[in-house]
Amino acid sequence: xxxxxxxxxxxxxxxxxxxxxxxxxxxxxxxxxxxxxxxxxxxxxxxxxxxxxxxxxxxxxxxxxxxxxxxxxxxxxxxxxxxxxxxxxxxxxxxxxxxxxxxxxxxxxxxxxxxxxxxxxxxxxxxxxxxxxxxxxxxxxxxxxxxxxxxxxxxxxxxxxxxxxxxxxxxxxxxxxx
Length: 178
Description:
Layout: H1 2-15, H2 35-38, E1 41-51, E2 56-68, E3 72-81, E4 86-97, E5 100-104, E6 108-117, E7 120-131, E8 134-146, E9 151-160, E10 163-176
Antiparallel strand pairs: 1-2, 1-10, 2-3, 3-4, 4-5, 5-6, 6-7, 7-8, 8-9, 9-10
């Protein structure tokens, strides 16, 4: 748990770097992040959503079971929020080229696109997000950074109508084979 807290604190520092980053800036950095390798098996994440005013609105954990069939990486995600709400999302990520991905999930609008370079992965997508009794269409600009064999840090800026509304921060930890 101390590692996850330290990882989340590190993620806060990374969150300030989001504006001008390009995936190419991370080419050659190690340890290399290959999604189909890192997410194969069981992974657990802890995270939070912070609004644009700096208020933490929700915390959550995610248990993930990842399977790679040589073409598609399936991520079966089970969320548990601090208010007791649960959610399931199943991502199907397909490699479309060298270090390029497309992703689909039931609540994703259209096709998500992502690219890997070195220790980083950048993922962009639109999603239908349940907020109270409403459903908001929001856009995620999602960045993952592999820190070591076990830890990947993730920061995602969330936009509605093109306006930044907050940031999701996550620390993933590999738990091993399924």
